[in-house]
Write a structure and sequence with these properties.
Blueprint (H helix, E strand, L loop, with lengths): L1 H10 L4 E6 L11 E6 L4 H13 L4 E4 L5 E3 L4 E7 L6 E3 L4 E5 L4 H10 L2 E2 L11 H7 L2 E2 L2 E2 L4 E8 L2 E6 H4 L13 E8 L1 E2 L2 H19 L18 H7 L6 E2 L2 E3 L7 E3 L5 H19 L8 E3 L3
Parallel strand pairs: 2-5, 3-5, 4-18
Antiparallel strand pairs: 1-2, 6-7, 7-13, 8-14, 9-10, 11-12, 11-13, 15-16, 16-17
Helix pairs in contact: 1-2
Bound molecules: flavin-adenine dinucleotide.
Length: 299
């Protein structure tokens, strides 16, 4: 491990952290340590790091805002690649933009709205990076990433490849971005809109989100996907589970599809609670809820 860390230090400007607790980097404030933790400053650094990791056969995973991620308590035995420094943003004047995989979605939306570019304003308030939003096909209201995505530059151990949207196969809260490919940048196509109207709808979205989702404790948004024609929160609520807890993890009293960390929750608590919810809901309705949150790492 130390040799790999030393080799990474040769090619990266930023620090190479060993054993960094991932609870510092997830919105749930849960997660064991990463064997290695790096934050590439440029696409070139990202590619060089992936090339090296592939050569020494060390697994890696991308980390954005950590807002849809449950890292198990044993941590991740590989390199966590924090994307937060790849923040480039180029509006091309033809309604398209090329944006870095680590760019904050909120920053992107504000800049698009200022230019009268519509298509993402319903996503305002989702605590995401562009890369995480592409991977998860993040969405809200009537919009999602699929609606604006032309394609993405995916970095891997063998270099960079452009995948058009058709190949990215964007579905409800899912895409074909493989676990070992990192969205270094995305190309988006917006539609024309009125900046003032767009700005108003962003403000309304932010207010509605605060009202519905202000649960007051660390969380990862909706834990389960909505089954076709159903709402996960209602299935959980109708099963009498609102407020139910395991250890430090509790189903939010305010939003039944949110699990909050009341303080000191472990990933094991959250996973037990997820299992209980699935079992109770399935017994009552026959529907198996599918987690939306990505579970990674070792027990
Ligand atoms: C309060 C709250 C509200 C939320 N509301 C919504 C909502 O309305 N709609 C919605 O869709 N989601 C919502 N979410 C969930 C979450 O914000 C989204 O799924 C978001 O897209 C995750 O982005 P991220 O950058 O935080 O990704 P992370 O959580 O860091 O990672 C999620 C997954 O994407 C991968 N990943 C991250 N970056 C990259 C990259 N550059 N390249 C390749 N893979 C990558 C990770 O490895 C992981 O598998 C909410 C979360 C919270 C906490």
């Amino acid at each position: 491990m130390n040799e790999v860390a030393a080799a990474l230090r040769e090619i990266l400007q930023g620090p190479v952290l060993v054993g960094e607790p991932l609870r510092r980097h997830t919105t749930w404030r849960i997660g064991g340590p990463a064997a290695l933790f790096i934050s590439p400053q440029t696409e070139e650094e990202l590619l060089a790091a992936l090339h090296l990791l592939a050569r020494v056969k060390m697994p890696w995973m991308a980390l954005g805002t950590g807002s849809n991620l449950l890292v198990r308590d044993g941590g991740f035995r590989g390199a966590v690649i924090h994307m937060g420094d790849l923040q480039s943003m180029t509006f091309r004047g033809d309604g398209t933009a090329k944006v870095g995989g680590g760019l904050s979605m909120m920053r992107l939306i504000r800049q698009a709205v200022k230019r009268g570019l519509a298509g993402l304003e319903d996503l305002a308030g989702i605590p995401a990076t562009v890369g995480g939003a592409v991977k998860m096909n993040a969405g809200a209201g009537g919009q999602d990433m699929a609606g604006v995505l032309e394609g993405a530059f995916l970095a891997g151990g063998d270099g960079m490849e452009y995948w058009p949207a058709s190949r990215l196969d964007m579905r409800y809260r899912a895409s074909a971005v493989p676990f070992d490919r990192i969205v270094a940048a995305a190309v988006l196509r917006f539609t024309p809109g009125d900046p003032e109207m767009l700005s108003l709808s962003v403000q309304q979205r932010l207010m509605a989100r605060r009202k519905a989702q202000g649960v007051g404790k660390p969380n990862a948004g909706s834990v389960f996907k909505n089954p076709p024609g159903q709402q996960a929160w209602r299935l959980i609520d109708d099963s009498g589970l609102r407020g139910h807890s395991v250890g430090g993890a509790q189903i939010s009293e305010k939003h039944a599809n949110f699990i909050i960390n009341r303080g000191g929750a472990r990933a094991a608590d959250v996973l037990s609670l997820i299992g209980e919810i699935q079992e109770v809901v399935q017994r009552r309705t026959g529907i198996m809820l599918e987690p939306e949150v990505q579970v990674v790492g070792e027990v």
